[in-house]
Amino acid sequence: MCWKYVGRLDLVIGFDTLLIMYEIYETKAYVLRSYGSGENDTRALFFTEDFGLIWASASGAKKDVSKFRNFLQNLTELKIFLVRGKGGYRVTGGQFIDNIYFSLKEDDDKLFQKKILVVKNIFNLLEKVFLHNEADKKIFNLLEAFLNSLGEIKREDLLKEREIIFLSKLFYLWGYFDEADLLEALDENKTERVFSLREIEKLRDKINQNISKVAF
User: Fold this and answer.
1) 43: how many CB neighbours lie within 10 A of its CB?
2) Which of 50, 79, 133, 215 could bond 2 through an S-S bridge, CB–CB 3.0 to 4.6 Å?
3) SS3 for the chain, per residue?
4) Is 0.90 surpassed by the pTM of this model?
5) What count of other Cβ atoms lies within 10 Å of the Cβ of residue 32?
6) Strand pairing partners for 79?
7) What's the pLDDT at 193?
8) Cα–chain-centroid distance for residue 6?
9) Where do the structural domains in the chain lie, given as residue ranges?
């Protein structure tokens, strides 16, 4: 849940101190991608629970002593603290939760690479489809549940199956699929059920037809 509080910023001008009040927001987020900005700063694209897709800058994040270095890497899950000014969002702090890349390294290399590719493809799709500053907690929760389930998947065929089922739920929430298109209820995330090849192929074809509509 997003919450905010009033912080204080003291600016010393001559012998006077100017007190500026500002709001700090906390929200759960995933780092979709980031890049260096200037000599020491970083800009990152976050998919957040409470603000949707946002860009935010972090001053001095590339410095060795920066508190931001550990949680602004790509594919990181975190709680992030933000302030919003005229130039957009700025990162003021955060709490590292997990890094998807390193959490999946225990898998054999082939399965690990396929899982990372699935995650990157989903992140790319979210970036192309989602409007900036458009929040949707149902989609965030769906994504979070899917990403948390990846560690339990130990077969490539099951990974592909779960990816297709996740995408079908995503398209349903976006309004492109009907409830009849879902192989599995929206609030379920089972890995033990195996669907028929015919069911999976039919759903894959419909997903592929719609990806071009929503992403391009």
Assistant:
1) 19
2) 50
3) CCEEEEEEEEEEECCEEEEEEEEEEEEEEEEEEEEEECCCEEEEEEEECCCEEEEEEECCCCCCCCCCCCCCCCCEEEEEEEEEECCEEEEEEEEEEEEHHHHCCCCCHHHHHHHHHHHHHHHHHHHHHCCECCCCHHHHHHHHHHHHHHHHCCCHHHHHHHHHHHHHHHHHHHCCCCHHHCCCCCCCCCCCCCCCHHHHHHHHHHHHHHHHHHHC
4) no
5) 20
6) 28, 95
7) 66
8) 26
9) 3-99, 104-215
Q: How many CB atoms lie within 10 A of CB 108?
A: 8
Beta pairing partners, 7: 22
Name the amino acid, one letter, at 62.
K
φ, ψ of residue 17 in degrees (nearest 5): -115, 125
CA–CA separation, 176 vs 199, rounded Å?
A: 18
Distance CA 164, CA 150 (A): 13
Is domain 3-99 in CATH 2.40.50.140, yes or no? yes
